[in-house]
Amino acid sequence: MTGPRHIGVCYYPEHWPEAGWAEDARRMAETGLTRVRIGEFAWSRLEPDPGRFDFGWLDRAIETLAAAGLGIVLGTPTATPPRWMLDRHPDMLAVDRDGRPRGFGSRRHYCFSHEGYRAEGVRITRALAERYGRHPAVVAWQTDNEYGCHDTAVSYSHAARKGFRRWLASRYGSVADLNAAWGTVFWSMEYRSFEDIELPHATVTEANPAHWLAFRRYSSDQVAAFNRVQVDMLREHAPGVPILHNYMGGETGFDHFDLGADLDGASWDVYPLGYLEVGLPGGRVETRDFMRQGDPDFQAFHHDLYRAVGRGRWWIMELQPGPVNWAPYNPVPLPGMSRAWALEAFAHGAETVCWFRWRQAPFAQEQMHAGLLRPDGQPAPALAEARRVADDLATLAAAAPVVGASRADVALLFDYPSIWATEIQPQSRGFDTIQLLLDAYRALRRRGLSVDILGPTAESLSGYRAVLAPGLIVWTEVWRNLIATADGPVLLGPRTGAKTPELSIPAGLPPDCPALIDLTVARVESLRPDAGVPLAGGGTIRHWREFVEPGAGVATVLACEDGTPALLTAGAVSYLAGWPDAVAFDRVLDAVLPIRPGDLADLPDGIRTRRMGGLQVLINYGSSPVDLTGRLADRDWVLGGPHLAPADVAAFRR
Ligand code: GAL
């Protein structure tokens, strides 16, 4: 991306007296904000009674914001169906795993499978799109809000059961084929009709994993289908205007690559301190170290993931400005940290970063959630940080004509069905595939490398200096073909190619990629947290270990102290037979990917770096100052310099 960068804010005009809107808009512009997202929860004000629309207030809000020079991002309000919707569709509520309807009184209380509600979503989208689709100030659309938030991607409703049976019939064709694919002969689970098949939640002990995987695929498809009908409506009435959705961190309820294929880019909501405290998949355990900064790799990992989901185009739709309200503990960020998070996103190629929210609301659920302004309208600390980011962007743009992420050194492969596979059948408490990927990502970043995370939609791996595919469990033709395009070293395992798309063990045993490397994972074991296996020469294999039988031409490069091979190599392809700790991961990378970008490798703890067009950006996530004069003194610094205080950002010309 080479276009101009924007900063913006989420604003709820319906929360504030109209007399104050113009002053709010003026102050936004004065802060350097050029984007404002509105409308995504306003259904009860847009349609106070069924079929009776009130767009007057939104017309005036849009005019007021546009008059201050702000580009509007307009949300469809389908995450918050008003109370009257339940009178029209009493069975539209999602149902939780225990069979309880998820009642009215907060948000996201709908079931994605409910066709009546899906049509209501299209109806309100049509009304908005007809009215504002060609409005010159509406520069982008957001569908719904955070699909999957509050554990809502999966629902066990009647609508879901009906839809699932139909989906199964179309996927498998005949119930005999389904029985064969799932192995239902086991425990006499054989079905005689698709109508016999229930949702997999109410069984005595675990349901068939293939049944679960099918249901996860089905549920993901419903999220994508729900989104698609809104997108189709928007495209008709708002031609050429980008349509986005705001994803979350660590959300695995649906395949973002599938959903993202219908959109013009990705966006995600970045709450580094909240994510740290709730311990999301992949979240760090040592929360105290980074309690005011957030995990130093979690944001970057998702930036790189969603850049792929957005096919190169991505935004932050919501950025944490201060304490949130929803984590167990809600500390204030380090001074300057909100600025650092924003600049980090731009370094990873973001087009736009919006803070959530303009003014802290004094009422309702999120009254303890900070904004750029306090509830009394006085500036909160992040307002000045947003202003500073506006100035930083001008500085960076002047220094390098092309700002935006550049192609990275290394590709890391990411697959939602593989994550579902380990969620369904972990075989080890806490086996978290996102954590495994993040461990690989952290190891690459410790070497100063920039990473592209790629999904099954990637066209080629050619040109990457290395490709990593740990935890790519569910092995398909797509992955086989993609990996065949790699022209650098490839690191597979652990658990790569361990299952078929129907969640069975492949006939020839894992890894199911004999064309890549000739070895067999004969046995596996999972390890309790206090029982790692030491690697000869340093480092430990934790959580997961595989016992591999190497074929012809496969050499053992690293072994455990007990002699079992841990890393095996044949030519350009290597296989990692366990989950390494940080020391072991560094040794694995030393052995198979001997690339280090000179003076950026092994930067002091807390420093993270990313290539941004012609610039190299550095961020201090640590809580102590860092002096890089020793190794980077003679660089051409365009932002900051080699002394980085905590939360500082610096950039030099490459
Ligand atoms: C997000 C959500 C926003 C707001 C925010 C608070 O998950 O999209 O509407 O609730 O969290 O941090």
Folded structure, characterized:
The protein is of the alpha/beta class and 654 residues long. Among the domains are: 34-264, TIM Barrel; 410-592, 3-Layer(aba) Sandwich (Rossmann fold), CATH 3.40.50. It has 18 helices and 26 strands. The strands form five sheets. A nine-stranded parallel β-sheet has the order 5-4-3-2-1-9-8-7-6. Strand 21 and strand 22 form a beta hairpin. The longest helix is centred in the middle third of the chain and has 29 residues, at 209-237. It is globular and about 75 Å long. It starts with 5 loop residues before the first strand and ends with a strand. The model has no long low-confidence stretch (mean pLDDT 95). Bound molecules: beta-D-galactopyranose. The site of beta-D-galactopyranose has 11 residues, from loops.
